[in-house]
Write a structure and sequence with these properties.
The protein has 205 residues and is of the alpha+beta class. The protein has one domain (5-152, 162-202): Glutaredoxin. It has helices at residues 5-9, 11-15, 56-59, 77-88, 110-120, 134-144, 187-202, and strands spanning 45-48, 53-55, 63-69, 96-102, 127-131, 149-151, 163-165, 168-172, 178-183. Helix 4 packs across helix 7. It is globular, with a radius of gyration of 15 Å.
């Protein structure tokens, strides 16, 4: 069943979370073959770990699973990234990509994201690490993904706790439409996101 714009606008209430919110409710998980959609991503411009500019056009036709992390995180980000690493080798050769989007771009330059990717053992032909301008990332997360992100004032929080954000991972179909939200801190639900992405990639999603 398609979701209306009002329902999409109310997702913030259902999906509120933070860098420590490992017990977020997940009422918007979409079953593998579900027709549910939750909103369309607005145009964006980000930068990958090689310094290359990435826009919506670069992802057109590919189903993506997106996560929101930062490299100095002392909360659940390492678990989310480890779960992505656990499913990396199960990705199809074509059609599905992982996206890790930094919520702390002031620290997470392309070079820093590159080192983070290397430490994880990421295959960057299948897993993209994205950063950019803070205001653009905030707008993308809050408006397009309907998820929260907030930063403490400089020096107001210890390193590793300076950003509050959702721990959801999000499946995006090949048209740039959100097709499901899943807990990123639990490997079984990340595998559900992968199953959803695989199904969409083979059914024109």
């Amino acid at each position: 069943m398609k979701r209306g714009r009002l329902g999409f606008g109310l997702l913030l209430l259902a999906l509120g979370g933070c860098s420590e919110a490992t017990t977020e409710a997940a009422p918007l998980d979409a079953r593998t073959e579900s027709a549910d959609r939750f909103g369309t991503l607005a145009p964006f411009t980000l930068v990958d770990s090689s310094g290359r500019t990435i826009t919506n056009a670069d992802l057109a036709g590919r189903v993506c699973i997106a996560s929101f992390v930062f490299t100095t995180c002392s909360g659940p980000c390492p678990t989310i990234s480890a779960n992505f690493r656990a499913i990396q080798d199960d990705l199809p050769a074509e059609g599905v990509r992982l996206l890790s989007i930094s919520v702390d771009p002031a620290t997470d330059t392309p070079e820093v994201m590159g080192r983070y990717a290397e430490k994880l053992g990421a295959d960057r032909s299948r897993w993209m690490f994205l950063t950019g301008k803070a205001e653009e990332i905030d707008a993308l997360i809050r408006s397009s993904f309907a998820l929260p992100v907030d930063r403490s004032a400089p020096g107001a929080a210890p390193v590793g706790q300076q950003v509050t954000h959702s721990t959801k991972v999000v499946v995006i179909d090949g048209r740039g439409v959100i097709a499901g939200y899943y807990s990123g801190t639990e490997l079984p639900t990340v595998r559900e996101a992968l199953a959803r992405a695989k199904w969409l990639s083979t059914h024109g999603g």
